[in-house]
Amino acid sequence: MKIRFGLRFKMVIMFFVCAFISMITSTTIIRSLMHDTVNYTYNLSYTNINFIKDFKKISLDSNKINKLIENYEETYKKNNLKIYIVNSKGIVLYHGTNSSEKFIDLQPFIDKQIALQDEIRYDGNEKGVDYSKISALKVNDEIFNVLVKGSTNPMNSYDLIRKHQGDLGFLLAMTIFTIIVAFLTRPKLKYIKKICSGLNEISEGNLKYRIIEKGNDELQLIASNINNMAEELEEKIKNEKNIEKSKQDLITNAAHDLRTPLTNIIGYIEIIKERGYKTEDELLKYVDIISNKAEVLKKLTNDLFMYTKLSSGSINLNMDSFSINELIEQLIDEYIILFESNNLKLKEDLISESIIINGDPDKLARIFDNLFTNAIKYSIKPSNVNLKLIKEEKRVVVSISNSCTDLEEEDVNNLFERFYMVDKSRSENENSSGLGLAISKTIAELHHGKLTAEYKDEVITFNLEIPM
User: Fold this and answer.
1) What pLDDT digit, counting tens, does each position of 91-134 carry?
2) Residue 114 CA neighbour count, 13 Å, CB half
3) Given phi > 0 = left and psi -120 to 50 = alpha, else beta, which region is 90?
4) What's the predicted TM-score (pTM) here?
5) 232 within domain boundaries
């Protein structure tokens, strides 16, 4: 499966996106905090100007003057400053609630302001500085002096943030980054937990459990591989159980098929040993029966040996290039007498072109031996047995068909099962091991071909396909 965007690529993109968002957010928050905190020291000049403007607008009413001072006093108090309204003789006429002087010598403040040309502003050092601002104004032909003085606060909230802006910004950015990463990776972490949970479930023996596949990255690939692994394990265990069952069936069926002729042989040997025959001809008859039963045993053991070797893959094919036409014609010559003696007529339809294939001629000949033998044994008599050889693209197809009755669909499906016989009584088929078609199918598969059967209108057809 092709992964369009891998987990590493997504993680790198997520890292940069989270870093960018956290930096922008932290900067915005810091600036917002700095914006919302008034820099009173910086704005004192504007406060003084506004106070003087407002003072000029009111009449010389004590209540109004005190009210005006009260409105501005909060700004001054936050910077640890005091406001006074003093006449030209230094007598304090009005003052804020945080001051109590009655007389102030104005000359030092006037000299300082002349020397500095401006009020002393806070420069950000932690000790603070002395601040003074004196403004003279004339109201109703009377001179008033507005004096603001005191020691400024060593550090206001704005300057605290400004001083530690880098550290605060870094800590805030890291906090935001961690929160965003935790939020964005939460689905993946949950999916990893599901994969781990699925692995535990499978490891405990539940091979039918499947992990839900999500996304299109390495995690989805891991989930897919785990599911495939579970499926393959399930299939292997199922196959092992089937193999074990097949072994048991093989032993049981072989024991059954070996017992009957062996019992007969032992029985006739006992008769001969006890001289239970009356004439020499009867003795020869018993010996004949023993010989036939021994041949049956020999065929059965040979078939069992061949089948086990084919099934285990321990048999080697002697591959060679040869003409399958010639092989079939040779076998026809060998079997034609048997067909005729059983009242069967073999009808051939072989392609004239010589077809060269690569295979083991002896093993392929065994397939035709089994198919010809079955046709002779189970065909309706008299009838025809049809043999056809055709060439299709990169393969050769050999079809053998014959008429037969009392064959069910279940029988056709089970024909290639070992020890399966259509007429259920084994004792009636002592000359058959029930392994012929199973062996033939295995040989065809070893040649990368296949052997199939179909039954229609009381005619069974075996099709052998071999690649060229």
Assistant:
1) 888 888 888 888 988 888 888 777 665 544 444 455 556 778 88
2) 6
3) left
4) 0.47
5) no
